[in-house]
Amino acid sequence: MHENIFKINEKEYILPGSRACQGCGLSLAYRYILKALRENTIVAIPPSCLCVLHGLYPTTPVIVPALNTTFASNAASASGIVAGLDALGKREMTVLALSGDGGTYDIGIQSLSGAAERNTNFIFACYDNEAYMNTGTQRSGATPQGTITTTTPILTKQDPKKDFLKIMEAHHIPYLATVSPAYPIDLYDKFVKAKKIRGTRYIHIDTPCPPGWGFPTRDTVKIGKLAVETGLFVLFEIENGRFRFTGRSKTMAERGKLLPLVNYVKKQRRFKDMSIEQLKKAQSSVNSRWNEYLKRAEG
Ligand SMILES: Cc1ncc(C[n+]2csc(CCOP(=O)(O)OP(=O)(O)O)c2C)c(N)n1
Ligand code: SF4
Ligand SMILES: [Mg+2]
Questions:
Q1: For the chain, what is the mean pLDDT?
Q2: How far is it, in rounded angstroms, from Cα 132 to Cα 48?
Q3: Which atom belonging to ligand 1 lies closest to the Cα atom of 103?
Q4: Do the strands 123-128 and 175-179 form a parallel or antiparallel pair, or are they unpaired?
Q5: Mean pLDDT of 138-142
Q6: Is the CB of 207 under 6 A from ligand 1?
Q7: pTM as predicted
Q8: Ligand that comes closest to the CA of residue 100
Q9: Predicted pLDDT at 155
């Protein structure tokens, strides 16, 4: 079923000894991303947990070249790398701008929107751990309603998560996809595919984070799977405007039933003060978005 299941790249691009936390969803995702993109990849990195993972110059566990950029300018800096490579005639290189949700939804949105509008020839991937984790779990535009963060410690976050996928889809880019490190083959296949497409490719990564979300480090994959099986995070791709479910979401759309959202919520300390009203609202928005996707998949 998966075109690359027997062809997974065995080479490791992240050597042992990174500074990421135990059980980090970003570490898992990044490992598979680099396996899919292979050599000839340059990564642009804004201030974030990814920056911490890469370490302090002159040492790093990552064996592809990377450029540290400023928070707001990751997409603009990556566009500069693309232009430089073009000028040198190096067309075999892949440029990956990899930003956190803060660096995508909030402070990086302007440079990303400009680059996507110009159909810049790069992959922009957002690893969404749903808060500013590197600086101590402040709320971002990606933080879900009902979550405790260090900037919403009493009442929980009241505003809903921004629908960033719709914002990116409105840029009419050639490729948009969602992935989860809990489903590595789906993730791997999508990055392999994205590498072959020219223009702006946007990939959204659901990124479970044990300390920020409040679950045991051994449960990263379990939490990632629950996000997909409750329909909160849907695996799909939109290629030249055509929507299709992939991986576990595809089998669930064909013959499955979504698990109740409470199964996901009750496993994370960040939701401990979520009200029943907030949970009902979140469940109803999961249901209506799932039905929207089912209709799109039919059409
Ligand atoms: C202009 C600017 N504002 C604030 C900071 C401080 N800062 C560094 S990393 C970070 C959080 C990044 O959050 P996100 O993009 O979600 O990535 P994560 O830390 O969750 O991996 C912040 C606020 C900064 N480096 N530059
Ligand atoms: S805070 Fe979360 S995203 Fe950041 S390194 Fe730790 S587990 Fe990974
Ligand atoms: Mg974040």
A1: 96
A2: 8
A3: 15
A4: unpaired
A5: 98
A6: no
A7: 0.98
A8: 1
A9: 87
Residue 1: pLDDT band with limits 50, 70, 90: very low
Q: Is 100 in the pocket of ligand 1 (CB under 6 A)?
A: yes
pLDDT the model gives residue 165: 98
Q: Which two tokens stand for residue 96?
A: 């990956």
**What are 201-236's pLDDT values in tens digits?**
999 999 999 999 999 999 999 999 999 999 999 999
- Among 73, 29, 12, 64, which Cα is nearest to 177's? 29
* Among the bound ligands, the one closest to the CA of 270: 2
Which residue has a Cα nearest atom 2 of ligand 2? 209
Ordered by where they begin, the domains of the chain are: 25-298 (3.40.50.970)
Query: Which of 19, 21, 24, 49, when mutated, tests ligand 1's pocket best, judged by the most ligand atoms within 8 Å of its CB?
Result: 49
Nearest CA among 137, 110, 108, 124 for reference residue 49: 137
**Whose CA is closest to atom 1 on ligand 2?**
133
Average pLDDT of the residues in 181-202: 97
Atom of ligand 2 nearest to the CA of 49: 4
15 within 8 A of 64, measured Cβ to Cβ: no
- Give the model's pLDDT for residue 143: 98
Protein residue whose Cα sits closest to atom 4 of ligand 1? 71
For residue 287, CA distances in Å to 223, 245, 284 come to 19, 16, 5
218 alpha carbon – ligand 3 mean position (Å): 20
Residue 72, pLDDT above cutoff 80:
yes
Kindly state the helix (H) or strand (E) to which residue 224 belongs, with its residue range: helix 220-229
